[in-house]
């Protein structure tokens, strides 16, 4: 089974993705995207000045962190047609590494953040080596099994002194602890933490966009479309798949580190199936075939949880939203936007040719 990232449905080998513009691999379009990214980055930094409500600002921070987890899931789906339910291992694992390094070892917040990112990224290599020869439903279940294995380990009585088991782990730091010039206690404030989350999200998206336009991105697309033909061409497909899995693990780890620093508390729920489901549902709602789709889905999912959480029917409303997207917008909302933009460009081009 391979996920068709244009429609978000599970199919066999689909037709080549001929509608993706390749001009982004040139020099000038990359320059324009770089300039646009800088503009978006600077504009987003002003969000705390515009959105002064602390509750809504906290939702923005939560959505940005969830976006990184959803981006990691969407990256594998978009480039390899693989769906993962085990990236909680990197998201939650990185968060736990930050908590353990700070609380038990007395590390600084910055040192603990680097430690969590490195450990979770490196851990993706052996995990990927075990499962990246599989695909489809087998890959999905293997990633789920690995994530649930870490969840089970974290709640064992023998792990209580390290992870806190079901009680979780409260991050502790010295009174004068700083993180990139910000007091550690101040990271709890969403208006203070937002610039860190926003910069991390925008930079990650930009790097993933560059990667998609590189030769490595083209290679991944070839593997996704017809891995057997790539092998017959003499290309080793295992190592590119493993590298892609490691990159996606690193993206999820960034989100986990940010979650730990912002909440200053980590719990086994970060490794649970529910956290994996949040990321996957966000990616599906936004669109697996669009780079910005998981981000759009994460913001909709986060604010939807807030606005629809009344009467005890939250799961009913969120389930209905997911069904509507899957039935009427199989490519996700991001895919719908992309198709409408492409349709308008086509109509405009046709009208110009007719007038000429």
UniProtKB/TrEMBL annotation:
A Pfam family it matches: BPD_transp_2
Main location, first listed in the record: membrane
Keyword Cell membrane: yes
Membrane-traversing stretches: 30-49, 55-77, 89-107, 113-131, 138-158, 192-212, 238-261, 281-304, 316-337
Membrane topology recorded in Swiss-Prot or TrEMBL: Multi-pass membrane protein
CDD domains: TM_PBP1_LivM_like (cd06581)
Database matches in InterPro entries: ABC_transp_permease, LivM-like
Stretches the record annotates as Disordered: 1-25
Keywords: Cell membrane, Membrane, Transmembrane, Transmembrane helix
Localization per Swiss-Prot or TrEMBL: Cell membrane
Protein name: Branched-chain amino acid ABC transporter permease
């Amino acid at each position: 089974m391979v996920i068709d990232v244009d429609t978000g449905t599970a199919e066999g080998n689909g037709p080549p993705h001929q509608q993706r513009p390749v001009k982004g691999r040139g020099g000038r379009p990359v320059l324009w995207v770089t300039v646009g990214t800088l503009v978006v980055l600077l504009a987003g930094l002003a969000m705390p000045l515009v959105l002064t409500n602390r509750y809504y600002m906290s939702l923005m921070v939560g959505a940005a962190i969830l976006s990184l987890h959803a981006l990691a899931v969407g990256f594998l789906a978009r480039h390899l047609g693989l769906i993962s339910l085990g990236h909680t291992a990197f998201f939650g694992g990185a968060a736990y590494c930050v908590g353990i390094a700070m609380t038990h070892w007395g590390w600084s917040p910055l040192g603990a953040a680097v430690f969590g990112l490195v450990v979770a990224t490196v851990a993706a290599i052996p995990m990927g080596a075990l499962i990246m020869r599989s695909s489809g439903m087998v890959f999905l279940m293997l990633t789920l099994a690995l994530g649930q294995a870490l969840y089970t380990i974290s709640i064992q009585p023998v792990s209580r002194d390290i992870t806190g088991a079901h009680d979780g782990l409260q991050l502790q730091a010295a009174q004068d602890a700083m993180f990139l010039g910000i007091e550690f206690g101040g990271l709890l404030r969403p208006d203070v933490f937002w610039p860190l989350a926003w910069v991390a999200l925008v930079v990650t998206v930009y790097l993933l966009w560059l990667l998609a336009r590189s030769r490595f991105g083209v290679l991944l697309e070839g593997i996704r479309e017809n891995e057997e033909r790539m092998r017959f061409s003499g290309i080793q497909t295992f190592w590119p798949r493993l590298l892609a899995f490691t990159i996606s693990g690193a993206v999820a780890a960034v989100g986990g580190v940010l979650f730990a620093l912002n909440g200053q508390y980590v719990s086994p729920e970060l490794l649970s199936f529910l956290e994996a489901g949040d990321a996957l549902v966000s990616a599906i709602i936004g669109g697996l075939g669009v780079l910005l789709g998981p981000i759009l889905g994460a913001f909709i999912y986060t604010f939807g949880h807030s606005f629809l959480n009344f009467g005890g029917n939250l799961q009913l409303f969120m389930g209905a939203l997911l069904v509507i997207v899957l039935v009427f917008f199989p490519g996700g909302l991001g895919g719908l936007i992309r198709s409408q933009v492409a349709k308008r460009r086509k109509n405009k081009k046709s009208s110009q040719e007719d007038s000429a």
